Each structure stands twice: as C-alpha cells, then as structure tokens.
Amino acid sequence: MLRTDALTRLQSTGQYALELEAVSRHFGALVALADINLTVKAGERRAVLGSNGAGKTTLFNAITGDFPPTTGRVRLFGEDVTDLSIHERIRRGLRRTYQISLLFDGLSVVDNVYLACRGASRGRLSLRRPKPDDAMTHAAETLLDAVHLGAERESLVSELSHGQQRQLEIALALAGAPRFILFDEPAAGLSPTERSELIEILQSLPTHIGFIIIEHDMDVALRVAESVTMMHNGRIFKEGNPEEIENDPEVQELYLGGGHA
C-alpha cells in the first residue's frame, strides 16, 4: 500500500520523472548525442538499447552530470537540473550504477550498504559510531534482503561472485530513498542463473521507483521494461513496447544482425 501511495503521489503531480529536451553532447568534432528528446513517466521502467557506440552511456552521463549536455535541458520531476552538480542530482532522488563495479572490496557487504545509506543522509559527516540499533544499519540490512544478499551480510566484498557484486551495486543504488535509477548493463558477465536472479530483483523493486536500464542482453531488458528506446549513432532510432521492438524488422536488422529467435 505504501509503495502504491508513493507512486500515486508522484503521478498526481503530472510531471515526468525524467525529461530530456534537445540534449546533445559533443566531444570536439565528435557528436556523441544529437538532439535527444525523451520523457519517462514516474514509476516507468524503460530499456535503452543499441549497439556499441550508439550513445547509451553518454546519455546516462548527460542525465547524471558526469558529462553535462553541450546543448539542451535535463529535468527531474519537473525541476531543471542541467546545471546542477552530481551530488545535487543525487539529493533529488537520482541514482546510477556503472558498467564497472565501484565497491569497497576490503569492507563487508553490510558496511558497503551502510556507507551508501549514510552518504545519502544529512548526518553523513558525523564521527559518532553507530549504535547496535542504528536506523541506517537496519536500512542496510533491509536492502541486502531486497537484493538477495542477506546471507552474505558479513562477507567481504572481495569474496563475492561477480553476480553478487552486481546485486550489491543495486542495493547501493537503492540507499537513501531514490526516485529514479539508471542501470548501466547490470547483466554484463552474469551466468544464466544470475541473470534470472537479476530479473527477479529488478521486477520486485518498489513501484514508485522508475528506472532506465542499458542492456545488451535483450532477454533481460525486455522482461523488466515496459517501454523501449532504440538508439543509433547518438540519436533515438525507434520507441515502442517490448513486443513491438522485438518484432520490428529494422531493429532486427540493425541490432540483431537480421534475425532473433
């Protein structure tokens, strides 16, 4: 009920969770993104697909502020964040995972998530040791259960499998009450069993948390997304629901080499 209420409140504002208006990104003479117009509703789950070099990660960088747009505007829940820093966007509920794992290998699993929860809180700079019943410790343990890592609570991150580290990154992204998450190839390098678990985790996220997933594994992307954007050469090529995209002859020719079972 609480999850549904949160989604209803976000949708009642009539604002898009994410809105890109004529966003372009240039690196010298190279045009990595060209005039991108994209809207994502509150609670919507969207996949962004395309071959290598299509501009997918550059799109994420423009949204998060890692590489702000050369031209155009970025809005989160109606607020123009184009000129805001990365941490200011985080404070407004934006989160991201990266293609390469960014974790504290020498710390325990629960300590990694605790630090993420602490970093998103107002008391993040406090030097006080947490109490045994600390609210953030409880929040960290709850997030570990959500990504199926409760049993690995005290394990060192360096002891986790690649798939478990990807699950841990999702827990970090969920810290601090996010409203919108960007997942950058979370299924990369996963076994079939690990991919199935990833799908289950993403499908069970709170309904008010919208996300965009970049993914080369179409079976993962099309199972967790309700809408799909295809990119090619820094531009939006096609949009539609998963079934439309999967069965589109032009998509099959461009992205799948002419066929897809």
From TrEMBL:
CDD domains: ABC_Mj1267_LivG_branched. One of its GO terms (molecular function) is L-isoleucine transmembrane transporter activity. Pfam families: ABC_tran (PF00005), BCA_ABC_TP_C (PF12399). Residues 18-258 form the ABC transporter domain. One of its GO terms (cellular component) is plasma membrane. GO terms for biological process: D-alanine transmembrane transport; L-alanine transport; L-isoleucine import across plasma membrane; L-valine import across plasma membrane. SMART domains: AAA. Keywords: ATP-binding, Nucleotide-binding, Transport. Transmembrane segments: none annotated. This is ABC transporter ATP-binding protein. It comes from Denitrobaculum tricleocarpae.
